[in-house]
Structures are given as C-alpha cells and as structure tokens.
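Anyone? Bumping this.
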Amino acid sequence: MYKLIKPLLFALDAEKAHDVSLSFLAGASHSTFLTGLLQSCFGNRVPDIPTRLMGLEFRHPIGLAAGLDKDARAFEAFSALGFSGVETGTVTPKAQPGNDRPRIFRLLEDEAIINRLGFNSSGLESYKANLKRRRTQSVIGGNVGKNAGTPIERAYEDYVTSMRQIYKLVDYITINISSPNTKSLRELQNAEHLDDLLLKIKETQGKLNKVSGRYTPVALKIAPDLQADELETICELATSHEFDAVIATNTTVTRPDTLLSEHKTEIGGLSGKPLNEKNTDIIRAAAYHLDGKIPIIGVGGITNARDAWDKLMAGADYLQIYTSFIYHGPAVIEKLVKGLRSRLDHYSCETIDEARKKLKKD
Ligand SMILES: Cc1cc2nc3c(=O)[nH]c(=O)nc-3n(C[C@H](O)[C@H](O)[C@H](O)COP(=O)(O)O)c2cc1C
C-alpha cells in the first residue's frame, strides 16, 4: 500500500509530506476503529520475538526512533503499524518553532535524510495532554531536550523539568544530548558537563521514584561523532551513574565520500543508509566499554534484517528505525522482524540474547 502512496508523498517537500502523514496518523490515533484497522493490516503481520530490557517487555526488537512523533500525537497509530515501542519527542519544556524551513532534505540516491529541525516542539503542556489519552500496551518512551534559549550551564533545569512532568506518563525517558541542530547541545557530552548532568538526572529519578512508588528508567542518547576516548568516558559515566540504557546513536554531522545526492552539503544531521556501518562500530565499541552492565538501544541506518542482526550481534539489545520507515513504510517493520525471526530459527534460538551468547561461543 505504501508503494502507492510514496510517489505522492515524495512529490511533496519533505517536511510537507511529514506533516500530511503525521496529521493522518494523529487523526487515526483518536479512533479505536482506525487503529484496529492498522493493527490488522500491518501490526498483526509482525511476528513476536519477546525482548526485555530496562525492566520493560517489548513484543519484538524494532521500535520507532525519536523525532517522528515529536509531540506525541500519533503514537497509537505507530504502535498499531507494528512498532513494539515508540519513542516520542524530542519535547522541550516550552514550545519553540525550531530552525527556518527548509530544514529536512531527502538524499534519494543515498537512501538518507539530512535534517536541521532544531527541536521544533509544541512544548510539554500539549505533549502531556496527548500522552494522557494513551490506550496502547506498546512501550512508549519520552525523549527530552533543552530549549534553544536555555544556556548550556542551565540545561539540566530543562531536563529535570521535563522528567518531573512526564515521569508517570511514559515507560522510559531519554536524555537527548546528541542532536547536532541545537547550539552547544553536544557539549553536554563532555566529561565536565556530563558527570554533573547525569548526577542531577539520577537524583531526580530517585526522588520521583520515592514519591510515586514507580521506577521509570532513564536512557542516554549519544552522537555517532565521538572520538574513541570520548565514547569510553561517556560509557564509564553512564555505568557509574547507573543509567538504564544507552541509545546509540543520533544523526551524524560527517559526510561520507560515497554520498551522491545534490543535498549532501546541506547543514544538519545525516541519517539512513550511509550511517549504518559507522553506527554499528559505535555499538560494538560501546558494548565493549559497557560490558553488559547497561543495555544498548541501537539506531542508525538500519534498512534490512542483516543490518539489524549485525547491530544485535555487535551488542545492541533493542533497535529503532526512522529513515528506512520514511523510505519503505510500515512493511519494513514486518520485513526486519521476520528476517530476525528466521535467523533465530536458523540458530535454534528463542531470543536475541541467546543467539548472541551462542555465536560468541562458536
Ligand atoms: C527528520 C528527523 C528528525 C529527528 N529528530 C530527532 C529528535 O527530535 N530527537 C532525537 O533524539 N533524534 C531525532 N532524530 C534522530 C533519529 O531518532 C535517529 O537517531 C537517527 O535518524 C538515526 O536513525 P535512522 O538512520 O534509522 O534514521 C531525527 C531524525 C530525523 C531524520
């Protein structure tokens, strides 16, 4: 079905196409009939591969990455399409418009996207109102960032504010310090800022846990453009502060020589196929440093089951996609999970973890 709609969507400017699709899915999210229909046409075709991390149960290891449902308007529909988890956001405390348009570019020849959205967000109030209407049993994450006007020294205030507001509404919270499109944001990945930020976040989580009696896990989303020693330091800090997961990775500011599209020189973060190998290398290195103490959510350039399998075998415990969903539609979820299922069957394994242990031994 997406094959029929895609030429129409791709004839539109990339952000216009995004707005049209999201409005449709947001509308569908309000209707149990329409989400039921999406579930029977798409979601029910996706097999189960039970996956457990951060104390949460996922139906299978493929979720939707942050940035598509920034304001939590359409997560019901995305769940019904077959994603086992939907990471909503990035939401900022106050509403903000983001950067000037155009700010999303399709690199068709490269099956990639460059975006410089800059955290366009309706702000916490409407985000919360949308989450309060939640019906789905799928895992829903909330990815939080800082407002453009908040100085870097006070960034923690934005993260803490958002954590407090959404703590009871989502299944996990992601601290996004890796978007390339908000000035200085990635400086938060430097050790001197990060140690303090992670401490404040864990303190907030501890207090909220005490008051609410509920533990909402917190994940840290990192950039793919880190030097080896920077990645090692971040992994050490995530471990010592007992973060619940590391999400690797956001988009890259690098431009591989292989890029063909005329848009390759646009400023912003590159996602999709050209990010795949670099991302898998980061997952492998992070898995080495984290040494099984913290799970890894792998995201970056997954297009087919082989990419997904490689990342899981490199140490990821769960995966997310964004760009391949734009290029291939909901069928890509079924294709990925069926591909993983047949690889598990090939090795006579029930879970990804079992397969990883078995392949390590052999
Ligand atoms: C248009 C666009 C907007 C995005 N917005 C966000 C965002 O708000 N927060 C975030 O953490 N990641 C954001 N991302 C990054 C994705 O979540 C993901 O980490 C990245 O695109 C790599 O995955 P992919 O190659 O499957 O797209 C965005 C990506 C794209 C393409």
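Late reply, but here is one note on the structure posted above: The CA atoms of residues 186 and 332 lie 31 Å apart.
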